[in-house]
Amino acid sequence: MNGINKITMAIFISLLGFSKLSQAIEFNLDVLDAEDRNNVDLSRFSRLGYVMPGNYIMAVYLNEQNIADREQTIPFYADTNVANTTKLCFPAALVNRLGLTEEAASKVIFWHQKECADFSALPGLTLKGDIASGTLYVSAPQVFLEYSDPNWLPSSRWDNGIPGILLDYSLNAATSKSHQGESSRNASLSGTAGVNIGSWRLRGDYQGNYEFSSATRQAQRRFDWSRWYAYRALPRLNATLTLGENYFYSDIFDSFRFTGVGLASDERMLPPNLRGYAPEVRGIAKTNATVTVSQQGRVIYETTVASGPFRIRDLNRAVSGRLDVLVNEQDGTQQTFAVDTANVPYLTRPGTVRYKTAVGRPSTYQHHIDGPLFASGEFSWGVANNWSLYGGAVGANDYQAVSVGLGRNLFMLGALSADVTQSTARLPGQEGTKKGKSYRLSYSKRFDEFDSEVTFAGYRFSERDFMSMGQYLDSRFGGNAIAHSKEMYTITANKSFTAARLSLYTTYTHQSYWDRQPEDSYSLSVSRYFDFMGHKDLSLNVSASRSQYQQRYNDAVFVSLSVPLGSGQNLGYSGQSSNNRLSQALSYSNNVDINNNYRIAAGVNNLGGQQTASQVNGFYTHRGDNSEISLNAAYVQNGTTSAGFSMQGGLTATAKGAALHPAGTNGGTRLMLSTEGIAGVPIEGDAVRSNRFGIAVLANVNSYYRTDTRVDINQLADDVEVSKGVVESTLTEGAIGYRRFSLLKGEKALAVIVMPDGKHPPFGASVVNPQGRELAIISDGGLAYLSGITAGESLSVKWNGAKGCQVSLPNPLLVPGNLLLPCHTIK
Fold this sequence. Notes:
single chain, mainly beta, 3 helices, PapC_N, transport, transmembrane beta strand, transmembrane
């Protein structure tokens, strides 16, 4: 409320005379220094919290948390029994958004043709409509509400979003030229297109690439849709239903591709403390490189990284099984390794059941059916506080597998699970039936007292004739010579030494086979912060890794030292040894702001005892309102000159508007924000700004997670005022949420409003804009302090519950200065 309005309200308060807040307020107009005491409209102030009858567009808050996916129409009806009193109508359709317990919901009664809810049977539950802020506040005791925590809400308050279309993309391109004159160019494109209709999400994953080499003078091009599917959340079951081409995701059995229908519990629908963890990928890039993470040939993540260690942590929680990682170096070399996304021991809340089912037929990337009809199911049942029973089965005409296991909470000692799987397979052209067993042991523990954690440790042994469904399909239909897994053990752990400012991280995997050589991979990282000669927070990092893929080793050791220079600037040293190649470099990096950073480095390379060659490289990243772009370039003496480009982003379009935006999870959840037609409004720490139509999209929103989104008022333009700068959302997977900030843009001016007969509108009348926003309250002599006005705009003046007259602002609008505004009677 502006300054003049606050003064006016103070005058009103000083005039009050009442004995009880619930009684009507009587005004002593004799103390009011007004020209015409008969021309005063204070009816709306005669009762505390009085709201004139009518329909109001309001945001709905429960215990200071937004519960509606968009602003709602809230009626206020005149109370025929008490003068100057209105009754708030809480829409019956919104009752389920409150998340009431079944017992509390049964006590709600309805009135006004059952359009309005009455909560009088629930003591302590109150409603308050604040017209000035456009908000309906609901206060409810926790005893009437379902379980919730600061980051999670019950399913009754999840938002499926609005209908719309989306197109997400990741584009990577590079060119290089050797000192002998040979050159090459390559580009890759991947992403997801989709349509949202109600609670359904229709998606199509695509990928393509282009390669050209001057040596062969040939170009290779490929583009295809790798997967078509549809899915929706089933909140009552805490599960997701998927139709179409899918991947068999299982916590017990190996993954394979199929076409059919799947129904699976989604732990993201559970409170955060009951969820598992998302997989992450670590490695060391020798140069500026493109990292591609895929599963069974489908690209699920692609990005460009600078030279040195990299860590990818924003993979979708739904990803499970074996991931293939390809690191395309800028000098043309490649690294390939695999990551097994380990699962923590299978524990389930007591009395609840988690499950996954699927029915369909195996299919190829050419969208052809290739295999027999199969059905599968698995479950985990919380038998008691500390025990879980789990198991499952998958079966086809000539293949069956059955598994059973137990999970145990060991309290101080962590959590442990053990299971055994029996497979039976019959292959054409081979006598008899192949039968075999596979045994697995898994362990997880967080040692809080030692500030350390064994994220996952597992051991698995498979007999020679044990076959997974994927191995069976490869043997029968793929014609591939498969490796028979024998033994695998893996561990992922970290440890922090707080006093020493030291942290350790390690992961190790060993895989042996019945019919080929074993494979090992590991990574070890040690980081320490320290002070030296007056310099604070220097950091030293040592990383070592070995990856083995198809009997090829990739060993790397990386050492880095970073010296902060202040204001986001750092001076660094890095040394890397990889496959008989030693490189060292000095670097300078600068985090210019939240959306821009760059790094330049210069040093020397030693290639296996050959002559030392100098090198220089640079890497720049910009996160814009429309996309995220990175540029990189490198030069190696007597070697390769190269440059690369990467761009990630998306387009989201709905009936509410459309916007280009930076990347999030492909095809994933996003939030569309309206700034009421105002362009350039900064959101979330200036991470993104609204476009020329007043629309912005945040594409990094977590599904089923309560999220607050804010206008960055520190970066806001001077001529924009914020009435509601925070919105809340809890979106289902893949949803396009929609929220609207309450903003006002325009000039401020003192004005005198005059009626056609030379008089002024009543003292206390309200001036509102075409959107229904109150801009001022008229005081004595028609004086009003207007804010958020624009040239040529028409404003309405209201009193006695109706529009009394209308003013038109001049064009151009001459401010500062007083405006004389004629107010014409509305016919």
